Amino acid sequence: MEANCEVAQFQASDGYCWRYRHYPANGRPRGRVVYVHGIQSHGGWYAGSCSFLASAGFQVFFLDRRGSGLNEQARGDTPSFRRLLDDIAEFLTWLHGRQPLPTHLLGVSWGGKTATALHKRHPGLTTSLVLLCPGFRPRVRPPFRQRARILLARLFRPGKLFPIPLNDPELFTATPRWLDFLRNDSLSLHQATARFLVESVRLDLYLRRCPRAVQVPVFLALAEHDRIIDNEQTRRFVDSFASPQKQMIEYPGTHHTLEFEPDPTPIFRDLAAWLDSR
User: Fold this and answer.
1) Helices assigned H by DSSP within 208-251
2) What is the C-alpha to C-alpha distance for residues 181 and 24, in angstroms, rounded to an integer?
3) How far is it, in rounded angstroms, from Cα 61 to Cα 53?
4) Could you tell me which residues are beta bridge partners of residue 32?
5) Tens of pLDDT along 87-104?
6) Is residue 249 part of a domain?
């Protein structure tokens, strides 16, 4: 397990127990950061940024989504996208009860969708919203025939598994050591159920009603050479948020998973400085 990282378990209100990583703050905490990850990734991808933020004085909690990462039960599945939002909200409420602190919600890739939608379903739980290459406007989709099969399976075999169309490591990074990591990562999610994939589309529809609900400060980080999301469409969507405080940075020469750059330290510094300014 990553240095200075504790793995713990949280029980949701429907009885599902899912795991998260906790990185204690160095010294007296100045705030907390709660991460939610992409459709295929998990907390093990982001040890670098988590450790950096913890050393900068933030409590860091990285939630592995039910059915992914460290969570083996109902692998690749979810009852609904609203249940995923409720998982985050219940955890945030529990944290607030333990220790009131400024709480920054950070969504990576597909997790940017749940982090944003949370502000409509459960407003008032966060101090700010951080989006790292969020998956609002994807470039990569299942082919039409597969989408039709997924929809049919949702009606008759909702637990049937389908490949997630992101199984090429080069979509995420061009850094050799991280390409090797992705090729050998046993915790990455490579298949999802028809139910999950349809719920992802339903989440996309729900997001159309969310911009007015996002009233907290927003930090958006984009990668210049992102092959998974459309940067320009993503900027336009985030610009429609009600929040009057938005900062958007596109990092030159980078790829979708900013964590996997040869030296992501400048990105981590920008993020820590922005959080500190909140």
Assistant:
1) 231-239
2) 25
3) 11
4) 59, 103
5) 999 999 999 999 999 999
6) yes
